[in-house]
Amino acid sequence: xxxxxxTHNEGKLVEIRRILAEGLGSDAGRIELVSAGSLNLPxxxxxxxxxQENALLKARDVAARTGCxxxxxxxxxxxxxxxxxxxxxxxxxxxxxxxDAANNALLLAQIEDIPDARRTARFRCAAALVVPQAExxxxxxxxxxxxxxxxxxxxPGVIIRAARGEHxxxxxxxxxxxxxxxxxxxxxxxxxSAEMTPAEKNAISHRGKALRALVxxxxxxxx
Length: 223
Prior knowledge:
Blueprint: E1 2-5, H1 10-24, E2 32-35, H2 51-66, E3 70-79, H3 100-110, E4 120-132, E5 145-159, E6 175-177, H4 198-204, H5 206-222
Parallel strand pairs: 1-2, 1-3
Antiparallel strand pairs: 3-4, 4-5, 5-6
């Protein structure tokens, strides 16, 4: 069975493929994950005002166009002292979508005077699975929705004052999760998300939690 991941970011596809493979076990071999980008599908405008709305918007669009089940996620950073910003605007906080360096620099400048104890934050992810009707709607010209599922995952932590680590993307170099891998116990400082291995990050990440919660719904599709 082919499932389309509603993303044009091949790095995210790799991460999602790894997380779902761990959760699905032997059933993983029965699923082919492909990205919307590899199918040259357009990237829909994210008009939702919550992570859930945007995840569903993207998954519905892909499912309607392809007739294949679609998985999408929408995630971002929520900084408590900033009133839950940058939130759904996380990827374009500094103005241009996906400019990680500019987004990180702006965030650090905005909370520069905030004491360490008040720099609490959390990543939140909404992951959606949309299953379309098998037949294309003759009038609408697309596949209508048969079912949809949305799950939420969060990873709490704190924002540090200078970036550390070379892995991950986005705000990972500035974010120290509350949950730490076992090897962090012998280190002078807790690890940022960008200092963790993919396996360590996936075990605790907001995206990992949300996608693993989708596994039962995906299992029902392949079985």
